[in-house]
Amino acid sequence: MEVLKVSAQSNPKSVAGALAAVLREKGTAEVQAVGAGAVNQAIKAVAIARGFVAPNGIDLIAIPAFAEINIDGEERTAIRFIVEPR
User: Where are the extended beta strands (E) located within the chain?
Assistant: First the structure.
């Protein structure tokens, strides 16, 4: 599954375009964010991507989950959104 990493500085529209492209190609994607600002941008991106793929008859859902990841040797908790068609 393709993992799109989102930061607090990510442009939600750009992430949404990448997410829509991955969904059209592979059918499912994962969006990963660490921190409140990154989660905010990730949610905006999922909402925008829903609008991008809706004309193709695709209704997206996002399933949230926690994930433990390693950043610079430090254990961090990330939020992962599995995005797939309903």
Answer: 2-6, 29-33, 60-71, 74-85
Q: Which residue has the tokens 């040797």?
A: 73
Residue 66's SS3 state is strand
Q: Which token pair is 37?
A: 């600002």
Q: What global pTM score does this model have?
A: 0.90
Q: How far apart are CA 74 and CA 76, in angstroms?
A: 6
Q: Residues near 40 by Cβ (< 8 Å), separated by ≥ 6?
A: 8
pLDDT exceeds 80 at position 1: no
Phi and psi at residue 82, in whole multiples of 5°?
-85, 120
pLDDT at 66 over 80: yes
Q: Above pLDDT 90, what percent of the chain? A: 85
